[in-house]
Predict the structure.
Amino acid sequence: MKIITLMVIILMLITSSAWASEQFVFIKGGRFLMGSPESENWRSDDELQHEVALSDFYISRYEVTQSEYKNLIGNNPSTFHGDNKPVENVTWLEAVRFCNAKSISEKLTPVYTIEGNKVTWDLSADGYRLPTEAEWEYACRAGTSTPFNLEHSIGADEANFYGHYPYEIEENYFSQQKLSTKPGIYRGETVDVGSFPPNKLGLYDMHGNVGEWCWDIYDDYKAEINPTGPSTGTRRVNRGGGWNDFAKNMRSAYRAATPQENSSFNLGFRLARGTLGTGTVSTIAEQKKNANNAKILIAYFSWSGNTQGIAEEIRKQTGADIFEIEPEKPYSESYNTVLREAQRDQRRQARPKLKNHVKNFGEYDIIMLGYPNWWASIPMPIASFLEEYDFSGKKIMPFCSHGGGRFGQTLTAIAKLAPNASIMKGLSVHYSGGSSLNNDIKTWLEQNDISVEY
C-alpha cells in the first residue's frame, strides 16, 4: 500500500510539473517591494512603495486567447480577430465567469460564486482565477525594481504598444537625443500572444498587447501579506497596458482602474491558480435609472475647438444643458507650447483653478464629459472639474477628440477621480470627426439609451 501511495504521489508531481511547464509558470512566493519609488518618472500617487509577502502560486504564460475563450464560452467579443490573439472586450465579470467555466470543464473546484454583480471568492478552491494585483506585479517584475521588467526602457520591438510614444517621450518630444529608447512602430491592434520575448520567469506580454484584469477592487494599498484588495468598491484593477497605451502606462507599478461591468478593445486577462485560504466578497450596487428620464449636462474642455464642435453637436441631438470647462489661466495658443504645458501639468498632477462653475450640479443625473486626449490622459482642468463636484450616484458618459490614441488611459483617470459614479459607454472622435460625426454621435447616444431629438 505504501509503495502504491508513493507511486501515486510521484505521478501527481510529474503531471503537475508538466502542466505547469506547458501552460502555467510556478511562482515561488516571497517578499518584494510593490509600487514605485518616488524617483520613478511618471509615477502616480497611488503607487506607494511598500513591502508585500506572497504565497506560492501559478500564473499562465500567455494572455487568454480568442480560441480558448470561444471554445469554452461559445462566442468571441474581440475587436481584432485571430485565434491566437488575446481575447479583449471582456468585462471583469465575464473574465471570472470564464475562470469558473474552465474550472468546471477540468473538474476543479470553482473559485467564484457569482450572484448578479456580487462575487464571492473561495480562496481555498483549487480552480482557475484572476491573479491578485500583488501577484500580477510580482510576476511581472520577475525580480526587477526598474520601471519595466526588461531593466531598460521598453521599445516597440519588445512589446506591442503605442510605439510612437516610448518612456519619457513627453519631456523629450522636440529633442529626442536623451531618450534611451526611440519611437518605434505603432501597430494599432493586438498581435498573437507570445510574439515578443518573455520576462525572466517565462511570462509573455506582461507589458502591452492588452491590459489584464486583476481580482482586486481599486483603492489605496493597505494589506502586506497576500493582499486581495478591499471588500467593497466600484472599480477593478487592470495592469500592464495594451496596444493603444503609451509606455509610461505600461510600467510594472502602473495601476489602471475600470468598472467591472465595462469592457474595452484594449483589455483582456490571464489566469492564475493557487490557494490563499480565506474568503472575500465584493458588492457593486446596480443603477437602474432610466436614462431617458435623466437630466443631462454636457461639460467639456476644448483647446483647438474639436471637442467643442463635438459637444455642440451632442447638444443639438439631445437638447441637454451645456457647460464649458475653462481654466482661469488659459493654455498657450501655440501648439508646440501647449504640448509642453500639458505634459508639465500631468507630471505635477496640477489642478488648475477653473474660471466658471456649474450651478445646481446636484440636479443632473448624467454628465457627458468631453475633452481632448492629451498625452494619453485627461487634461488637468478635467481633473479639477471631477474633484470639485460630488459624482456619487451619477453617470458619466465620456467623449474625447484624439489624433490617433483614442481614449488612451483617460477612462482610468476618470474612474479613479470619480469612484462613486458609473462610467457609461464612451465616444472617441478622430480630431473633429468629419462627415460621420452626426451618425457617430447618434449611434453612441442610442447605445447609452439616450433619446435623440432628431
User: Anything to note?
Assistant: The first helix runs from residue 2 to 22.
